[in-house]
Amino acid sequence: MPENNNSNTEEIRFAYWVPNVSGGLVVSNIEQRTDWGIDYNRRLAQAAEKNGFDYALSQIRFTAGYGAEYQHESVSFSHAILAATEKLKVIAAILPGPWKPALAAKQLATIDQLTNGRVAVNIVSGWFKGEFDAIGEAWPEHDERYVRSEEFIRSLKGIWSQDHFNFDGKYYQFKDYTLKPKPLQQPHIEVFQGGSSRAARDMASRVSDWYLTNGNNLEGIKEQVIDIREKAKANNHQVKIGVNAFVIVRDTEEEAQAVLQEIIDHANPEAVNAFGDATRQAGAASPEGEGNWAKSTFEDLVQYNDGFKTNLIGTPQQVAERIVALKQVGVDLILAGFLHFIEEVEYFGEKVVPLVRELETQKTIELRAG
Ligand SMILES: Cc1cc2nc3c(=O)[nH]c(=O)nc-3n(C[C@H](O)[C@H](O)[C@H](O)COP(=O)(O)O)c2cc1C
């Protein structure tokens, strides 16, 4: 059994990727009964909150990439989903550069007020230089993008939790600024971040509430958890950890593996290779070469956040056991993508979540028994 790095005994949480960009979550021409429009997304969100999902994560893209030809904007789309649900928390992705913290803080505070405190934010640092060039945004190099993101997060938290907020950063400055009304969530709206590099982990261990990382095997995840938890402890900061996974659960393992094979067989090679080239500006370009996609193969890149690597592919029992193994190494949340979202979210809620809860209870009893 892997050692338990999870300091809390809380239930592992589930989030799903909001398909607010076209093409689904895989760069493949396989048939997908997933739609990027709002009607489908409202029904999906309603199904998710009834099936054990606490969070939904939206995506921000300004231009097409890896087959995502159309992309709805993340904050307004998140608000529309919140308006159609009752308890789901929706995480709006925000990219420093196009967004400024003053605007983001105000926009999100209002959404928080309108939705009974259910909005969250994912600060992404940017991986696609072509996109920044296309919209006339400067492209700071890898670690500098994290310097900016960290200032962005410190600004958000300061604005949301203090009156007369002052901040004198390299990228952002605030003088005696008081936001009213503040968000309903106190002390502030939850802040997530995405990325795997050393710079990403360092930022998480200082300022983020949640660290979201690409899919990976158990060992790869465990290394990140240990690194972040050690650094966070030294900084007297608490951060939770979420891992991406492309989930394929079927009644038999053979069926699940066959779906994976079909996705890969129908991969769109041009789009996958173009994406692979673009990612070299991102994780692989970090000084240590440890970021997202640093070691991704062609097949990994067919799911654009390495979601196959987490291996939540199999029967309900196999997948539930692997989820609990991830919890045992310190993971707090599974960020799930699916091929046919609504129907698979329902199947997951019906077949996998109850097994996870049973296994978690068993593990807690074992732990208490020593
Ligand atoms: C779960 C997750 C979600 C992300 N969502 C977005 C997004 O919506 N838009 C975007 O431009 N980048 C997104 N990113 C990319 C990251 O912000 C970051 O640029 C990328 O992971 C490379 O970071 P690294 O070099 O620190 O690993 C996401 C990353 C992760 C792990």
UniProtKB/TrEMBL annotation:
<keyword id="KW-0560">Oxidoreductase</keyword>
<dbReference type="InterPro" id="IPR036661">
    <property type="entry name" value="Luciferase-like_sf"/>
</dbReference>
<dbReference type="InterPro" id="IPR024014">
    <property type="entry name" value="DMSO2_SphG"/>
</dbReference>
<feature type="domain" description="Luciferase-like">
    <location>
        <begin position="14"/>
        <end position="332"/>
    </location>
</feature>
<keyword id="KW-0285">Flavoprotein</keyword>
<keyword id="KW-0288">FMN</keyword>
<dbReference type="GO" id="GO:0046306">
    <property type="term" value="P:alkanesulfonate catabolic process"/>
</dbReference>
<dbReference type="Pfam" id="PF00296">
    <property type="entry name" value="Bac_luciferase"/>
</dbReference>
<dbReference type="GO" id="GO:0008726">
    <property type="term" value="F:alkanesulfonate monooxygenase activity"/>
</dbReference>
<dbReference type="InterPro" id="IPR011251">
    <property type="entry name" value="Luciferase-like_dom"/>
</dbReference>
<keyword id="KW-0503">Monooxygenase</keyword>
<dbReference type="InterPro" id="IPR050172">
    <property type="entry name" value="SsuD_RutA_monooxygenase"/>
</dbReference>
<protein>
    <submittedName>
        <fullName>Dimethyl sulfone monooxygenase SfnG</fullName>
    </submittedName>
</protein>
